[in-house]
Write a structure and sequence with these properties.
Strand content: under 5%
Low-confidence stretches: none
Number of strands: 0
Order of helices and strands: HH
Radius of gyration: 15 Å
Oligomer: single chain
Mean pLDDT: 79
Helix content: over 70%
Largest sheet: none
Shape: rod-shaped
Number of helices: 2
Structural class: mainly alpha
Amino acid sequence: MKLNIQLVTAAVLSVGGLVLLFCGVYIAPQGEIHESLLVGFGEVATFAGALFGIDYVYKKKGDQNGN
């Protein structure tokens, strides 16, 4: 159960980060949220999602090997 939550969190962070990166680059500024904030948070969320995903893969491999 815990690994499923970790996998969902990794997927949401990665997709959300990518969406924010595209929004920061392609949407014209409306004066509410500066594009650098969108890009910065998008990069952080994508990186965090990648780390969660990598951790999930190695935990899953450890379970399959009997560890």
